[in-house]
Protein backbone atom coordinates (compact mmCIF):
# COMPACT_ATOMS: atom_id res chain seq x y z
CA UNK A 1 0.00 0.00 0.00
CA UNK A 2 1.43 3.35 -1.08
CA UNK A 3 1.72 6.33 1.27
CA UNK A 4 0.70 8.61 -1.59
CA UNK A 5 -3.03 9.34 -1.90
CA UNK A 6 -4.91 7.80 -4.79
CA UNK A 7 -8.10 9.80 -4.11
CA UNK A 8 -7.85 13.16 -2.42
CA UNK A 9 -10.88 15.28 -1.50
CA UNK A 10 -10.35 18.68 0.10
CA UNK A 11 -13.16 20.95 1.36
CA UNK A 12 -15.62 19.00 -0.77
CA UNK A 13 -19.15 20.40 -0.63
CA UNK A 14 -22.29 20.12 -2.72
CA UNK A 15 -25.97 19.32 -2.84
CA UNK A 16 -29.14 19.58 -4.89
CA UNK A 17 -30.78 22.81 -6.08
CA UNK A 18 -30.76 25.14 -3.06
CA UNK A 19 -30.09 22.37 -0.51
CA UNK A 20 -26.49 21.87 0.58
CA UNK A 21 -25.82 18.29 1.68
CA UNK A 22 -22.02 18.02 1.97
CA UNK A 23 -20.01 20.47 4.05
CA UNK A 24 -16.24 20.90 3.55
CA UNK A 25 -15.25 17.23 3.61
CA UNK A 26 -11.60 16.13 3.64
CA UNK A 27 -11.05 12.49 2.67
CA UNK A 28 -8.14 10.37 1.45
CA UNK A 29 -8.00 6.90 -0.09
CA UNK A 30 -4.54 5.44 -0.62
CA UNK A 31 -3.62 2.91 -3.28
CA UNK A 32 -4.64 -0.59 -2.15
CA UNK A 33 -6.69 0.73 0.77
CA UNK A 34 -10.30 0.05 1.74
CA UNK A 35 -11.96 3.14 3.19
CA UNK A 36 -15.40 2.67 4.77
CA UNK A 37 -17.86 5.55 5.15
CA UNK A 38 -20.71 4.87 7.55
CA UNK A 39 -23.48 6.99 9.00
CA UNK A 40 -27.25 7.37 9.31
CA UNK A 41 -29.49 7.10 6.29
CA UNK A 42 -30.04 10.41 4.50
CA UNK A 43 -26.92 12.14 5.82
CA UNK A 44 -24.94 12.41 2.57
CA UNK A 45 -23.18 9.10 1.93
CA UNK A 46 -24.60 8.53 -1.55
CA UNK A 47 -24.24 12.24 -2.36
CA UNK A 48 -20.54 11.98 -1.47
CA UNK A 49 -20.01 9.20 -4.02
CA UNK A 50 -22.00 11.13 -6.63
CA UNK A 51 -19.82 14.19 -6.06
CA UNK A 52 -16.62 12.19 -6.57
CA UNK A 53 -17.87 10.42 -9.70
CA UNK A 54 -19.12 13.59 -11.39
CA UNK A 55 -22.84 12.87 -11.04
CA UNK A 56 -23.35 15.86 -8.74
CA UNK A 57 -22.65 18.84 -11.00
CA UNK A 58 -22.70 21.62 -8.41
CA UNK A 59 -19.80 20.97 -6.02
CA UNK A 60 -17.14 23.01 -4.29
CA UNK A 61 -13.66 22.09 -3.14
CA UNK A 62 -11.17 19.80 -4.86
CA UNK A 63 -11.27 16.16 -5.97
CA UNK A 64 -8.26 14.46 -7.54
CA UNK A 65 -7.24 10.94 -8.52
CA UNK A 66 -3.50 10.20 -8.55
CA UNK A 67 -2.90 13.94 -8.84
CA UNK A 68 -5.36 14.43 -11.72
CA UNK A 69 -7.99 17.10 -11.02
CA UNK A 70 -11.47 15.61 -11.50
CA UNK A 71 -13.48 18.74 -10.78
CA UNK A 72 -13.96 19.89 -14.38
CA UNK A 73 -14.32 16.41 -15.90
CA UNK A 74 -17.49 14.72 -17.17
CA UNK A 75 -18.64 11.40 -15.63
CA UNK A 76 -17.27 9.54 -18.68
CA UNK A 77 -13.90 11.23 -18.31
CA UNK A 78 -13.84 10.38 -14.59
CA UNK A 79 -14.47 6.72 -15.44
CA UNK A 80 -11.68 6.89 -18.00
CA UNK A 81 -9.40 8.37 -15.34
CA UNK A 82 -10.03 5.30 -13.18
CA UNK A 83 -12.98 6.00 -10.84
CA UNK A 84 -15.77 3.40 -10.98
CA UNK A 85 -19.06 4.13 -9.22
CA UNK A 86 -21.12 1.02 -8.38
CA UNK A 87 -24.45 2.48 -7.21
CA UNK A 88 -26.86 1.03 -4.68
CA UNK A 89 -29.64 -1.13 -6.09
CA UNK A 90 -29.51 -2.96 -9.38
CA UNK A 91 -29.65 -0.38 -12.22
CA UNK A 92 -29.09 -3.10 -14.82
CA UNK A 93 -30.50 -3.22 -18.33
CA UNK A 94 -33.30 -5.73 -17.67
CA UNK A 95 -33.84 -6.78 -21.30
CA UNK A 96 -30.14 -7.46 -21.85
CA UNK A 97 -28.34 -10.66 -20.92
CA UNK A 98 -25.84 -10.97 -18.10
CA UNK A 99 -22.87 -10.87 -20.46
CA UNK A 100 -24.30 -7.87 -22.34
CA UNK A 101 -24.67 -6.01 -19.04
CA UNK A 102 -21.11 -6.92 -18.07
CA UNK A 103 -19.71 -5.74 -21.40
CA UNK A 104 -21.40 -2.37 -20.91
CA UNK A 105 -18.89 -1.80 -18.12
CA UNK A 106 -16.07 -1.89 -20.67
CA UNK A 107 -17.70 0.57 -23.09
CA UNK A 108 -14.65 2.88 -23.02
CA UNK A 109 -12.25 0.05 -23.92
CA UNK A 110 -11.52 -0.90 -27.54
CA UNK A 111 -8.88 -3.57 -26.84
CA UNK A 112 -10.69 -6.89 -27.30
CA UNK A 113 -7.93 -8.86 -25.56
CA UNK A 114 -8.18 -6.59 -22.52
CA UNK A 115 -11.98 -6.93 -22.46
CA UNK A 116 -11.67 -10.73 -22.58
CA UNK A 117 -9.09 -10.64 -19.77
CA UNK A 118 -11.41 -8.58 -17.57
CA UNK A 119 -14.36 -10.84 -18.39
CA UNK A 120 -12.37 -13.91 -17.42
CA UNK A 121 -11.42 -12.22 -14.14
CA UNK A 122 -15.09 -11.47 -13.40
CA UNK A 123 -16.11 -15.04 -14.21
CA UNK A 124 -13.34 -16.36 -11.95
CA UNK A 125 -14.51 -14.19 -9.06
CA UNK A 126 -18.20 -14.77 -9.80
CA UNK A 127 -18.54 -18.19 -11.44
CA UNK A 128 -22.34 -18.11 -11.16
CA UNK A 129 -22.37 -15.24 -13.65
CA UNK A 130 -20.58 -17.44 -16.18
CA UNK A 131 -23.35 -20.00 -15.76
CA UNK A 132 -25.98 -17.28 -16.18
CA UNK A 133 -24.22 -15.27 -18.92
CA UNK A 134 -26.96 -15.79 -21.54
CA UNK A 135 -29.82 -15.21 -19.09
CA UNK A 136 -31.79 -11.96 -19.13
CA UNK A 137 -30.99 -9.68 -16.20
CA UNK A 138 -34.71 -9.34 -15.44
CA UNK A 139 -34.89 -13.05 -14.55
CA UNK A 140 -32.09 -12.99 -11.95
CA UNK A 141 -32.49 -12.99 -8.19
CA UNK A 142 -31.71 -9.83 -6.20
CA UNK A 143 -28.33 -11.18 -5.14
CA UNK A 144 -27.41 -12.21 -8.67
CA UNK A 145 -28.33 -8.75 -9.98
CA UNK A 146 -26.12 -7.16 -7.33
CA UNK A 147 -23.25 -9.40 -8.41
CA UNK A 148 -23.76 -8.39 -12.04
CA UNK A 149 -23.61 -4.75 -10.92
CA UNK A 150 -20.29 -5.33 -9.18
CA UNK A 151 -19.00 -7.36 -12.11
CA UNK A 152 -19.94 -4.60 -14.53
CA UNK A 153 -17.95 -2.16 -12.38
CA UNK A 154 -14.93 -4.46 -12.48
CA UNK A 155 -15.19 -4.61 -16.28
CA UNK A 156 -14.26 -0.93 -16.43
CA UNK A 157 -10.75 -1.75 -15.22
CA UNK A 158 -10.75 1.28 -12.91
CA UNK A 159 -8.22 2.06 -10.18
CA UNK A 160 -10.78 2.98 -7.51
CA UNK A 161 -14.13 1.29 -6.81
CA UNK A 162 -16.83 3.45 -5.19
CA UNK A 163 -19.37 0.94 -3.84
CA UNK A 164 -22.67 2.23 -2.46
CA UNK A 165 -24.46 0.04 0.11
CA UNK A 166 -23.94 -3.36 -1.55
CA UNK A 167 -26.01 -5.09 1.16
CA UNK A 168 -29.13 -2.95 0.60
CA UNK A 169 -32.31 -5.03 0.46
CA UNK A 170 -30.57 -8.42 0.38
CA UNK A 171 -31.09 -11.51 2.54
CA UNK A 172 -28.36 -12.20 5.15
CA UNK A 173 -26.98 -15.22 3.29
CA UNK A 174 -26.60 -13.15 0.11
CA UNK A 175 -24.97 -10.29 2.03
CA UNK A 176 -22.42 -12.79 3.30
CA UNK A 177 -21.63 -13.82 -0.29
CA UNK A 178 -21.29 -10.20 -1.40
CA UNK A 179 -18.90 -9.42 1.45
CA UNK A 180 -16.80 -12.49 0.72
CA UNK A 181 -16.37 -11.07 -2.77
CA UNK A 182 -15.45 -7.63 -1.42
CA UNK A 183 -12.90 -9.24 0.90
CA UNK A 184 -11.38 -11.03 -2.10
CA UNK A 185 -11.14 -7.74 -3.97
CA UNK A 186 -9.53 -6.05 -0.98
CA UNK A 187 -7.00 -8.85 -0.53
CA UNK A 188 -6.11 -8.68 -4.21
CA UNK A 189 -5.02 -5.06 -3.72
CA UNK A 190 -8.05 -3.25 -5.12
CA UNK A 191 -8.59 0.30 -3.88
CA UNK A 192 -12.13 0.56 -2.49
CA UNK A 193 -14.30 3.27 -1.00
CA UNK A 194 -17.27 1.49 0.56
CA UNK A 195 -20.43 3.19 1.85
CA UNK A 196 -22.74 1.39 4.27
CA UNK A 197 -25.44 2.33 6.76
CA UNK A 198 -24.97 -0.82 8.86
CA UNK A 199 -21.35 -1.33 9.79
CA UNK A 200 -21.03 -4.88 11.09
CA UNK A 201 -20.02 -6.35 7.71
CA UNK A 202 -18.09 -3.38 6.36
CA UNK A 203 -15.82 -2.48 9.29
CA UNK A 204 -13.72 -5.69 9.21
CA UNK A 205 -12.61 -4.69 5.69
CA UNK A 206 -11.63 -1.15 6.66
CA UNK A 207 -8.17 0.35 6.73
CA UNK A 208 -9.73 3.75 7.50
CA UNK A 209 -13.21 4.68 8.70
CA UNK A 210 -15.15 7.93 8.25
CA UNK A 211 -18.34 8.65 10.22
CA UNK A 212 -20.61 10.94 8.19
CA UNK A 213 -23.35 12.78 10.09
CA UNK A 214 -25.38 15.65 8.67
CA UNK A 215 -23.06 16.00 5.70
CA UNK A 216 -19.98 16.43 7.93
CA UNK A 217 -17.41 13.96 9.13
CA UNK A 218 -17.99 13.49 12.84
CA UNK A 219 -14.80 11.40 13.14
CA UNK A 220 -12.30 9.44 11.13
CA UNK A 221 -9.54 7.02 12.04
CA UNK A 222 -8.58 3.36 11.87
CA UNK A 223 -10.49 0.39 13.34
CA UNK A 224 -8.18 0.14 16.37
CA UNK A 225 -8.84 3.78 17.24
CA UNK A 226 -12.58 3.33 16.79
CA UNK A 227 -12.60 0.34 19.14
CA UNK A 228 -11.53 2.61 22.00
CA UNK A 229 -14.22 5.25 21.30
CA UNK A 230 -17.20 3.90 23.22
CA UNK A 231 -19.32 7.00 22.67
CA UNK A 232 -18.93 6.73 18.87
CA UNK A 233 -19.71 3.03 18.91
CA UNK A 234 -22.85 3.60 20.93
CA UNK A 235 -23.99 6.52 18.76
CA UNK A 236 -23.20 5.28 15.27
CA UNK A 237 -22.98 1.51 15.47
CA UNK A 238 -26.01 0.83 17.63
CA UNK A 239 -23.99 -1.02 20.27
UniProtKB/TrEMBL annotation:
Origin: domain of life: Bacteria
Query: Coiled-coil annotation: which residues?
Result: none
What InterPro entries does the record tag this protein with?
A: AAA+_ATPase, ABC_transporter-like_ATP-bd, ABC_transporter-like_CS, BCAA_Transport_ATP-bd_LivF, P-loop_NTPase, Rhodanese-like_dom
Sequence similarity: Belongs to the ABC transporter superfamily.
| Location of the Rhodanese domain | 208-228
Protein keywords: Amino-acid transport, ATP-binding, Nucleotide-binding, Transport
Q: What PROSITE patterns does the entry give?
A: ABC_TRANSPORTER_1 (PS00211), ABC_TRANSPORTER_2 (PS50893), RHODANESE_3 (PS50206)
MF-aspect GO terms: ATP binding
- Where does the record place the ABC transporter domain? 7-239
SMART domains hit by this protein:
AAA (SM00382)
Output this protein's name. ABC transporter ATP-binding protein
Organism of provenance: Dongia soli
